[in-house]
Write a structure and sequence with these properties.
Elements: E1 2-7, H1 18-23, E2 30-36, H2 40-52, E3 56-60, H3 72-81, E4 87-96, H4 104-121, E5 125-130, H5 133-143, E6 149-151, H6 158-166, E7 169-173, H7 183-191, E8 197-199, H8 221-232, H9 236-250
Parallel strand pairs: 1-2, 2-3, 3-4, 4-5, 5-6, 6-7, 7-8
Helix pairs in contact: 6-7, 8-9
The protein binds nickel (II) ion.
Length: 253
């Protein structure tokens, strides 16, 4: 069944029908969802949601756009929260030089500290990196040793993707691969072995074709799987099945 390795069901866009939508997932072929926090405030929310739905797990962490709100007290609280048995990863964490909400120095500092926290807790990491390819790679080389995880919504070169695969990371592929202008991502998918790819939505964002621009949800992953299957020359069912195995290995489930 479909394993969505990165979703944001605490987003207010789901306020109108969250329960109904999540309860329809199994009927739509979705077996497992990892719900990701972005801001400090959403760490507790995604964990509470994971406790409510048996097929849902949580990844907790603070997104680079939001690290300005962190301090020592909150960081200590995060460490306590992340010991909940439904927390399967630290994320999403990383660098975002596109929105550039916080200084690069502050983003790097909290990225590195959250990597250390993941190591301490024995959890994989979920990396968000936008317009920050070089700095992210440098930090992962210097501070990521012994860690595993996924480079979520991967958007850089295929060469760099293969470098991450060699370092033991998975490449997260979502709806973008179905977009007309996604030539570079399709080349990456062609180059990276299926054994190192996991599927994700990042919903409510980044819905695949034919729903581009609409609210995304985990059942639309079938369109992403179909596109990957086309690129790889295999059946969509094989993509769904293999990436589910990868995701279980990644999140130790
Ligand atoms: Ni996300």
């Amino acid at each position: 069944m479909i394993f969505d390795t990165h979703a944001h069901y605490d987003d207010e866009q789901f306020d109108i029908d969250r329960d109904e939508l999540l309860n329809s997932m199994a009927a739509n072929g979705v077996g497992t969802i990892v719900n990701a926090s972005a801001a400090y405030e959403s760490c507790g929310r995604v964990i509470r949601m994971a406790e409510k739905y048996p097929f849902m797990y949580a990844m907790a962490g603070v997104h680079p756009d939001e690290v300005g709100s962190l301090d020592e007290e909150k960081f200590a609280r995060m460490k306590e929260l992340f010991q909940n048995e439904k927390v399967v990863a630290v994320g999403e964490i990383g660098l975002d030089y596109y929105w550039d909400n916080e200084s690069h120095e502050l983003q790097k500092e909290w990225f590195i500290r959250q990597l250390s926290l993941a190591r301490e807790l024995g959890l994989p990491v979920n990396i968000h990196s936008r317009d920050a390819a070089q700095d992210t790679m440098e930090i992962m080389k210097e501070h990521g040793e012994g860690l595993d995880g996924v480079i979520h919504c991967y958007s850089y070169s295929k060469e760099m993707a293969l470098q991450y695969v060699k370092m033991g990371f998975y490449i997260g592929v979502g709806g973008v691969v179905t977009f007309k202008n996604a030539r570079r991502l399709r080349e990456t998918v062609e180059a990276v072995p299926l054994a190192s790819i996991v599927l994700e939505t990042d919903c409510p964002y980044l819905a695949p074709e034919p729903y581009r621009g609409k609210r995304n949800n985990s059942s639309y992953i079938k369109y992403t799987a179909e596109e990957i299957a086309r690129i790889k020359g295999v059946a969509a069912e094989e993509v769904i099945c293999r990436t589910e195995e990868n995701a279980r290995r990644l999140y130790r489930l």
